[in-house]
Amino acid sequence: MYQKQDEIWLEEVCEKIKQKITWVSEKSKNKIPYTTVEGIHDDRSDSSIDPDNGIYWWTNGFWAGIMWMMYQETGMQRYAEIARFSEEKMDFCLMDFYGLHHDVGFMYLPTAVADYRITGNLDSRRRALHAANLLAARFNPVGKFIRAWNDIGDDDRRGWAIIDCLLNLPLLYWASEETKDPRFKQIAMLHTDTVMEYFVRPDGSVRHIVEFDPNTGMAVRDYGGQGYEDGSSWTRGQAWGMYGCLIGYLHTEKKEYLNMSKRIAHYFLANISSDGLIPVDFRQPKEPYWYDDSAAAIAACGFLELAKIVAEHEKDMYYNGAIPLLNALYENHCDFTENSDCILQKCTGAYHDQKHEYPIIYGDFFFIEAIFKLMGNGLFIW
C-alpha cells in the first residue's frame, strides 16, 4: 500500500491533471487528438487527412475517454458534451466500414460504452453493439484468434494476431453482459486462451505478433513488431499482456488469466530500472535508447488492478511496482504547462519508427487512469 508521503505528490499531480485538462479541453473541444505539433493537439477528425490515418485512427477513442474520466471526477457536464462530440464524429467509421479493424475496442469502449454506462444513452448502446459485432466477425474459429489489422497492398495479414488485442476484448465482454448472448464472451476467452498458449514465453516476456495459417490454424512464426527485433521484449506489449489478462480474469473469474497476468507482471517488475523510466523494449541496445512513457502508464494501471484483488501479502509488491513508475513519469516526463497540450512527453510508437519520444494521447489516458485509480475515484472503462 502506498505510504503517507505518497499522498502528497498524488494529490499534487491529481490537481495538476484537472487544471491542465480544464484549459486543454476547451482548446481542443472540437478535435480528436493523437499527438501534438509544436505543442498543439493535432486533429484526426480533420476531413483533409487520409481516413486511415484520420477518422479511422485506432487511438481516436482515448480523448473522449479522458473526458469521461474528468466528468466522473468533477461532474462537469461540459466534459460529457466534448466526449459525445468525438463519439458522434466516429459514426462515419461505422457507416463506411472499410478502415475498421481489431481496434474497434479502443475506439468504442472509451466513447460509446463509457457513454452508455454513465448516461444510459441508447444511441451509444447501438454504436457499441455495432462495433462489438464487427470485432466478433474478425474471429478465426480454426485458429481461435481475432485477426489483426487489414491487408495493405500486397501484405497478407489474414493469419496475424497481436498482443494489443487483449485490450479490445472488453468490448466483447460488455456485449455479452448487455445482451445476455454468450458468444461474444466465448470469442474473447478463446482468443485469450490462444494468447496464453502462443504469445507468452516461459519467462513472462511476450511476443507482439504471432502469425497463424488462416486455413489450418497452425502457428507459423512470430514477429518483433513494434519492439526491437524478433524475440525481444516490447514493453508496451508486456503492459498490454499483463493488463489484458487481468481484465479477462475480472470478466470471467478464470484463474489461469490471473496467473498469466502475474507471470507477465513479475517479468516486468524484474526489468524496471532504478530510475523507474521504461524503454521501448527491455532488450533494446544501449544506443539508441528510446523511452516509452505509455508503457509505464499502462503497466501501472495493471499493477494497481492486481493489487486490488490479490491476497494481502502480495498487495505491496504490485503497489510498489506502480507508484515508482508514476512518480518517475511525474518527476521527469510530464509537462503541465501551456507549452504542450499533452501531459506525457516521451511516448514511442515503435522502436524502429522514424519518430521517437513524443506525446501520444493514450499515454495521457492511462496516466490519468492510474492516478485517478490511486486516488480512489477512477472510472474503470475496461
Strand-pairing-aware structural class: mainly alpha
What does the overall shape look like? globular
Characterize the biggest β-sheet: 3 strands, antiparallel
Q: Which percent range describes the beta-strand content?
A: 5-15%
Residue runs with pLDDT of under 50 for 5 or more positions: none
Main sheet: which strands, in order across? Answer: 5-6-7
Order of helices and strands: HEEHHHHHEEEHHEEHHHHH
Give the CATH topology: Glycosyltransferase
Distance between the termini: 23 Å
Q: Mean pLDDT, as a whole number?
A: 96
Q: Which assembly state applies to the chains in this document?
A: single chain
Number of domains: 1
Q: How many strands?
A: 7
The CATH class turns out to be Mainly Alpha
Q: Rg, please?
A: 19 Å
**SS field, number of helical segments:** 13
- Percent of residues in helices comes to 40-55%
Q: Which CATH-level-2 architecture?
A: Alpha/alpha barrel
Describe this structure in words.
- The chain has 382 residues and is mainly alpha-helical.
- The chain is globular, with a radius of gyration of 19 Å.
- The chain has helices at residues 4-27, 62-74, 77-89, 91-96, 104-119, 122-136, 170-179, 183-198, 235-252, 255-271, 293-309, 312-332, 361-374; strands at residues 36-37, 40-41, 139-140, 145-146, 160-162, 209-212, 219-223.
- Helix 5 (104-119) runs antiparallel to helix 6 (122-136), helix 9 (235-252) packs parallel to helix 11 (293-309) and helix 11 (293-309) packs antiparallel against helix 12 (312-332).
- The strands form 3 sheets. It has a 3-stranded antiparallel beta sheet with strand order 5-6-7, with no helix packed on it. Strands 1-2 form a two-stranded antiparallel sheet. Strands 3-4 form a two-stranded antiparallel sheet.
- It has a single domain (4-374), classed as Glycosyltransferase (Alpha/alpha barrel), CATH 1.50.10.10.
- Helices cover 52% and strands 5% of the residues.
- The chain is built from 13 helices and 7 strands.
- A hairpin with a 6-residue loop joins strand 6 and strand 7.
